[in-house]
Amino acid sequence: MKPQESYVTVFDSAEHSGLKNSLTRSYREFIIYRYAIFNFISSNLSARYRRSVLGFIWSLLNPLFTMAILSIVFSTVFRSSLTNFSIYIFSGLLPWTMVLNSLTNGAMSLVVAESYLKKVYVPKFVFPMVIVGVEVVNFLLSLISLFFVALLLGAKISWALLTLPFALALTAIFILGLVFLVSVITVYFRDLAHIIQIGLTALFYMTPIVYPLDLISGSPLLATVIKLNPIYYFVELFHVILYQAQVPGIFLWLTCLGLMAFSFTLGFWVFSSKEKDIIYRL
C-alpha cells in the first residue's frame, strides 16, 4: 500500500524578490483582482456623493465654479482676455486637481485600508491604484465641463484632442508612482500626509496654472526653478493640447515619458520592497 502523500505550501522568495518578478506577480494579481478594483472605484465615487441631491453633477460644477473665480480674479490682475484665460486656467487646473487629490488621499490609502489588509488578503497595490482611478474618473467627468465651456467661448475642435488619452495615461501612471511612494512612507511617518498638503499648496503657485510662463520670462532664475518642477511638464502637456489646440512637441512627450518611467519605477520598487513589512507597521 502506497503511503499517503502530503503537500506543503512553500513560500517562493524568488517570486517576491527583484523588480521584474514583483512586476510580473503584480500584473497577475491585477488581472485576478481587476473587478475588485473597479468595484472599489465605483464604491468610492458613490460614497463621495451619497445623499447629495446633485450627485455626480458636482464633478462638473466644482471645476466650473473654481475656474470662474480664478478666471475673473487673475484675468483682471493680468489684464488678459477673460475668454482665453478661462480655457487656459481650466486646461491646467484639471490635471493639477488630479495630482492634488491623488497625493493627498493616496498618502493615507494604506492606513485607511488597515481593516481590509488585516482581515482578508487583498494585494496592497490595489488601494493606491483605486485612489488614482477615482481621480481619473473625476478628471474625465470634469473634462465634459471643459468641452462645454470651451465651445461656448468659441474654442475650436482640433485633431490634437486625439493625443489626449496618451497625455492622460502618462499623467496617471506618473501620479501612481508618486502615490505608491508616499503611501508607504506615510505608514512609517504619519505626518507626511499633512506635509504633502502644505507642500502642494506652495507647489500650486510654482506651476503655471493661473499665470502663463511667458509672464515671468524677465526672470530667468524663477523660470528655471519652475521648470525643475516635474508637474509643470504634465500641466503643459494639457495646456498645449486643450488651450493651444496643438499636438505637443517630441521634447515634451519624451520629458513626460521619462518622468513617468522614473516615478513609477521608483514608487513601485519602494512599494514592493516594503510590501511584506507594511502590515506590521499599521
Characterization of this structure:
The protein has 282 residues and is an all-alpha fold. The protein has one domain (54-281). It is built from 12 helices and no strands. It has helices at 19-32, 34-48, 58-77, 82-106, 109-112, 114-119, 126-152, 164-188, 192-205, 220-227, 230-243, 250-281. Helix 4 (82-106) packs antiparallel against helix 9 and helix 8 packs parallel to helix 12. The chain is globular. The termini are far apart. The model is unreliable at 1-13 (pLDDT under 50).
Give the overall form: globular
Unreliable spans are: 1-13
Total strands: the figure is: 0
Q: Tell me what portion of residues adopts beta-strand conformation.
A: under 5%
Radius of gyration: 22 Å
Q: Please work out how many helical segments DSSP would assign.
A: 12
Number of domains: 1
Head-to-tail CA distance between termini = 51 Å
Largest sheet: none
What structural category do the secondary elements indicate?
Answer: mainly alpha
Instruction: Summarize model confidence as the mean pLDDT.
Output: 82
SSE pattern: HHHHHHHHHHHH
Helix proportion range: over 70%
Write the layout of secondary structure elements.
Elements: H1 19-32, H2 34-48, H3 58-77, H4 82-106, H5 109-112, H6 114-119, H7 126-152, H8 164-188, H9 192-205, H10 220-227, H11 230-243, H12 250-281
